[in-house]
Amino acid sequence: NSILAKTLKLKFFNTERSLIDTALWDLKGKLMGQPVWKILGGSKCEGMPVTWIVHGNSKADMIKEALRVVNERGFRSLKVKCWRRSMEDVEMIRDMRKELGDKILIYVDANGAYTEAEARAILSRLVDYNIALVEDPCELDDPARIARLAQAMPIPILGDDYCRDADDIKKLVAVGAIGAASVKPRRNGITGTLKAIHYCEINRI
Questions:
Q1: Residue 79 in contact with residue 53, Cβ under 8 Å?
Q2: DSSP class of 124
């Protein structure tokens, strides 16, 4: 704990801090003679849903890739990159949904490419195509601004870059800014990931 406390003083070094955290968990496992997954309370995995990230330089390429991974590899959940800041993104999702049907979960990731006005005007239209979440629609650091955007959007916002640690998630949840959070062990370490997951669970996001 004292080592972790010292790493918290490091600013803008999330990856390095998470590596130290993970190494300490690994050391704890070795000292206890147990794998870390067992210390964390894990059991035999019976399988879990996995999402495929759909990339491509054209609408046709992205739809082709989505169909391939669904039909050939059995994926039932897709994250689709949307960065064009135009109705072309909406048209791509419309055509992809038509090809895939309604049983495949689709959410989109704008990687902060949209302005707030564009997100309201364009990404909101994706609600017509059963889109579960919109990840990081704009580059924003202010939880209040993200919350105002969330209130204007008919689709919940998934925070990724917005959610650098458990404290970020707490601030965003407190103002109703996000409907889901992306938690990454490489960014949060095992300790931070557990804290973030616990907070999301008790707040049902």
A1: yes
A2: G
